[in-house]
Amino acid sequence: MGDSWITYRCWAHHILGEHESELAAARKAIASHPEWEWVREDEIAALAALGRVDEAIEAAERCLVDPEIAGQAGYIVIDGAAELRAHGHREASLVLANRVVSWCEMRPDSTQASAEETGLHVEALRYAERWREAAQLLRPVVVDGTDNPRVIGVLGGFAGRLGDREGAIEASESLRRLDDRHLFGWHTYRRACIAAVLGEREDAVALLRQAFAEGLEYGQYLHIEIDLETLWDYPPFQELMEPKG
Hints:
Elements: H1 2-15, H2 19-32, H3 38-49, H4 53-64, H5 73-86, H6 90-105, H7 120-127, H8 131-143, H9 149-161, H10 165-177, H11 186-197, H12 201-213, H13 235-241
């Protein structure tokens, strides 16, 4: 419970732009509970937002060699890379993402995407802008059959980035046709991501609003999603992401 509470507190600080407070809370938690995994991501996120890029990279590198958090280290660092990108540090983000790609390639059990998730290797390639390699890893999951909205949507995003507009639209339509009352808007969220990749910003924001109406949770992940990058400077998206209340 303790680590979740600290993480939610850090997220709140982050969304409100209170990054010094976010960093202080994360570092205090790390010092007292080094086994807590996700507060490491909070530290990197705060450093990225503060423009302390070298410190963010150093914190991420420590994660990859820390046995306390070995199970989640790769995902923590990829989220750190995403935070760096979201805060205007694209080159540093690419460095971290490629670092995780190399880390994955030394861990054969981590290189295959499943029908349940895209897999760490795919995520690392995605944030490293190595779209074609990532798509090649992920495509067999779809060929074998899946109704996982994340897998379908991420592959649709790759199609859009690689110039296959028809394939991207086909993925969006596949998501639209999913019929499961437990999706809670995640399929519509991925449709918004595809629309954003295709440059259809108005449609993307409309789909995000629909996803929220369907039950999509608001969270920090929204501001670091690489497939929404074309919306980051778009006023309707900024207004939608602004904390209310």
